Amino acid sequence: MADRKLNIVVWNEGVHEANNHPATMAEMYPEGMHGAIAGGLRTFYPDADITTATLADPEHGLSEDVLARTDVLLWWGHIAHGDVSDEVVERVQRHVLGGMGLVVLHSGHFAKIFTRLLGTTCSLKWRNDGERELVWTVKPSHPIAAGIESPIVIPKQEMYGELFDIPEPDDLIFISSFEGGEVFRSGVTFSRGKGRIFYFSPGDQDYPVYHQPQIQKVIANGVGWVAQPEHFREAPEVSNPQRGWYLGPDN
What we know:
Elements: E1 7-12, H1 15-20, H2 22-28, H3 32-44, E2 49-54, H4 64-68, E3 72-76, H5 86-97, E4 101-105, H6 112-118, E5 125-137, E6 152-161, E7 171-178, E8 183-192, E9 195-200, H7 213-227
Parallel strand pairs: 1-2, 1-3, 3-4, 4-9
Antiparallel strand pairs: 5-6, 5-7, 7-8, 8-9
Helix pairs in contact: 3-7, 5-6
């Protein structure tokens, strides 16, 4: 990977922008949340090939050819998780198990791909009263925490609180606290197969969180970590339902 461009795809269901909050979204995210996230990443990865995809695109913009050349996929979803094709979810899962990096953002905790890879409900407590969120670094030695101030102050944000029904993470990097007293494991990592996963919760459709430089840096750090630049990945073979996922002779 060192001798070629990093290939990054930012996926967003794109439903709020079109149907639910068009006026608010047009003001905060004129290019959609995927556009804002991609724009932030271009600051840190000016030489990378960064593209976006949405639910409405053919095959949700995640065809076999696209995923085969994708090093990192970022996923934002909220109210249309059920509309995501199971075939596409299986395709994404196969590529994550084969080594593609996955960054899941905010309400993507309920995305089919996230719950399938983690094997739990990924449910949590929530309240949307526009409260202040403080994002505290609890593992400053992790590469994703490099250069991140603690706490990151988000003036207004949807509250996510425990219990967060996820497996024990490989790394707990960030914990958030809210004005109501709740806390939340807001930045965690997992490994599945050859792939790395980073979940980061700050970033709601009602607030301009993805424009905050420190939030953009966390996401960029997450992309760099899940990308595994030293790791050569071949597109995994199609699964055999009788034998499970085939990832190569060394697995």
